[in-house]
Amino acid sequence: MSLPDKFASIPPLPLLLGPSPIYLLPRITVDLSNNKVSIYAKREDLNSALANGGNKTRKLEISPSAASRATRLGKSPPQLRVGLRARLIQEHWVDWEDRGYESVGNIQLSRLMGADVRLDKSGFGIGHKPTAVGLVEECKGKGEKPYYIPAGASDHPLGGLDFARWAFEVREQEREMGVFLDTVIVCVVTGSTMAGMVAGFKLIEKLYPEEEAEKGAHGRMRRKVVVIDASAKPAETRAQVQRIARDTAEKIGLGADQEDIVIDELYHAGVYGIPDKQTWDAIEYGASLEDFITDPGL
Fold first, then answer.
1. Nearest-CA neighbor of 50 among 85, 79, 7?
2. For the segment 57-81, what is each residue's pLDDT rounded down to a tens digit?
3. Of 153, 176, 200, which closes a domain?
4. Cα within 13 Å of Cα(118), Cβ side
5. 38 and 166 housed in the same domain
6. The whole model's pTM is what?
7. Same structural domain for residues 30 and 162?
């Protein structure tokens, strides 16, 4: 993949198998648009052999070396794979008191893969928490050199760069497939996935103005990134996305304007992590038409 110097100078950790696949969803395309609009999926859940991959795995490709890491990511295998200790703070983000809540899912996977998991009763919140600061100090007290990764690997100096690179991956795949994806739809909670996309696509527009002119000549619209809020705190999420997009843009020599940030607030059901009927219906819809498996946050 051809990358500008701003990215090529940051060597990623080799965590991905390669570009995550993009493919047409033919039955959903027919059902929703009668073939007037083609609907594709880019499968970040197939991007790595490492614990089912996902956007967090991509985010950890751009990360400095450290002796240990304090992390609230939700999964730990990337740290362990490169020989680092993983200390994980698992907060009580979902208001759900089932006895299995703190022993299954991501927590169970993290323990299976050797992470030091710390359960914390702190509720939902995408900001930095005192418990994380405390864990960093604990690591230092043990003579370790911690590298702190906040929730979603988002609000830190490298947040957003990974998905800015992702935008260039999409551009290359589009050229190979002979398509242009004019609308990218993604879920948002902690913000760096969307923020990186916004900055990356904006850099592409700057570097390849002839491609933008060609799209205009063929009546194509400018690409937009539309985000579905899953936090149920859209004001907080929007502010963090704008901050990360701005920081990412500055690192790659751009500016990110507020009008680049479009967040749809219609689908969060009023609370993080607890799906409503329309969410369950959407999960069933994708599975029944395309064998396309999602979870309530996607």
1. 79
2. 888 887 643 333 444 444 455 555 5
3. 153
4. 16
5. yes
6. 0.86
7. yes
- How far apart CA 179 and CA 77 sit, in angstroms, is 35
- Asked if 42 and 83 sit in the same domain, the reply is no
| Structural domain harbouring 12 | 5-58+158-290
- Please indicate, yes or no, whether residues 214 and 278 belong to a single structural domain of this protein: yes
pLDDT digits (tens, 9 = 90+) for 95-139: 887 878 788 888 888 888 888 999 888 888 887 888 888 999 999
Strands 116-120 and 40-42: unpaired
Is the CB of residue 230 less than 8 Å from the CB of residue 188? yes
Domain count along the chain: 2
> How far apart, in Å, are the Cα atoms of 98 and each of 95, 104, 226, 268?
10, 11, 34, 21
- At residue 248's C-alpha, the angle toward residues 79 and 164, to 5°, is 70
Token match 């009546």: residue? 219
Q: What is the CATH number of the domain that holds 223?
A: 3.40.50.1100
Label residues 147-169 b or e (16+ Cβ within 10 Å = b): bbbbbbbbbbebbbbbbbbbbbb
